[in-house]
Amino acid sequence: MELPVREFSETLPSVKPKKPLELYEFEACPFCRKVREVISMLDLDVMIYPCPRDGDRFRPQVVEMGGKAQFPYLVDPNTDFKSYESDKIIKYLVQTYGDGIIPLPLSLGPLTTASASIPSLLRNGRGRQAEKSLAPQPELPLRLWSFESSPYCRIVRERLCELQIPYQLFTVARGSRKREELKEIAGKVQVPYLVDPNTGKSMFESSSILDYLNDTYGKGYSPKVEDKVEEVSPRAVEFNVVPEDPEPVKVDAEVLEDSEDI
Length: 262
Hints:
Elements: E1 21-25, H1 30-41, E2 45-50, H2 59-66, E3 73-76, E4 81-83, H3 86-97, H4 110-122, E5 142-146, H5 151-162, E6 167-171, H6 178-186, E7 193-196, E8 201-203, H7 206-217, H8 225-228, E9 230-231, H9 234-238, H10 253-256
Parallel strand pairs: 1-2, 5-6
Antiparallel strand pairs: 1-3, 2-6, 3-4, 5-7, 7-8, 8-9
Pfam families: GST_N_3
InterPro entries: GLR_AS, Glutathione_S-Trfase, Glutathione_S-Trfase_N, Thioredoxin-like_sf
Protein name: GST N-terminal domain-containing protein
């Protein structure tokens, strides 16, 4: 069965949340991807708290709030909604911030889950396991302009997940009103675009961002980083989807560990 490509913001939110949503997840989880897809479609912004396997920064918070280490886990501070279960979260989001109709590609049950697993299978599970011996957690969350179906954005999110770096995700899928805001902030519409308010750095290009993250928050050091980054603009500091034609696949049990049961 062919699934239509739905990477764009087709249903813009009728009510924009005053406070960013909070999503506890890890990049390699297909159930988490389903939630990120609907967030991208609805053009919502969200605080991401990465919870990779063996992560010790935000997994304990999920257990404290919900009673178990299961992902995704969404918190909406605007309504006090808190929940596990991707389908329940998707239904809540489209009813609260959309037109109430769940997009077809996200309503096909096991087929949706299988298609959401494909990127992680192709990436050999990157964004699943926490890196050991991390640098101290940054004082302020990073800011990432991205949309779900971009492969260049994905590899940046994978690394942020492995490093357990919290970040505010600004979704700018096709049709997003925030594309013009991004152009005003950064000078052009290109993703991924990362801003680190802790160091005053901002940059495009996934390779530059990965070098920067490894140099600043990981184990590696790249002398090329300084040549690739730009000073962050004041506006950037103040400014506060579905795979193509997927075939049904067998879901990797390793990828689903600590995720929802299927």
